[in-house]
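Supplementary notes for students who missed Thursday's class. We covered one full example, reproduced here. Read the sequence, then the structure, then the short commentary at the end.
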Amino acid sequence: MKRYARGNTEFAFQTPAAHAGTPIFRAVTPLTRALHRHVPDAPRVDLFYAPLAHTVEQQLARATTRPLVVGIQGPQGSGKSTLATALTQAFVDVGARSVSVSIDDFYLPHAEQRALAARWAGNRYLEHRGGPGTHEVEFGTRVLGELCALGPGMSTRILLYDKSAQGGRGDRAPENQWRRAEGPLDLVIFEGWMLGHA
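Structure (token representation):
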């Protein structure tokens, strides 16, 4: 690996063998180093996570209001939660007050999901959690609004959905397992597979 420096930023050029034939030229910044601490897969960080993180970092620097809300969308199982967690941890490491929220945490509680499935018997999309109509949209909107409105000394709780509960059908976790977010926040990362059109 060859390294170059310009100002406070170090750049590295990796040879093709270092990344399965894909040469890359990357900035080695405190944010990149933080990502590497949290994600052991260096090619994933260098090729995918770091470019996105630096784009978010630039947007954060230009933002006139806080927090900056970043949406991550992708198919189920594509690594959105892993990416959101890594970005949140890395931004916290470099001093940005950050939190991530998943659309999955806004699934209807188990009893309400069962009632919805019974009300629409035969509709395979509403039989289980996951599809449109199986989320508490108003609750999710309220939580995101609360996160954006947090000022100094304020806090709010971020709910957690336990997909393993109820024999794998899922249910909202007890409130004592929910996370607490302290304000003010610089960055809110919201991830899910139905956040708009890509």
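Commentary. The helical segments are 30-38, 42-62, 80-93, 110-119, 124-127, 137-149. The chain is about 35% helix and 25% strand. If anything here is unclear, bring it to office hours.
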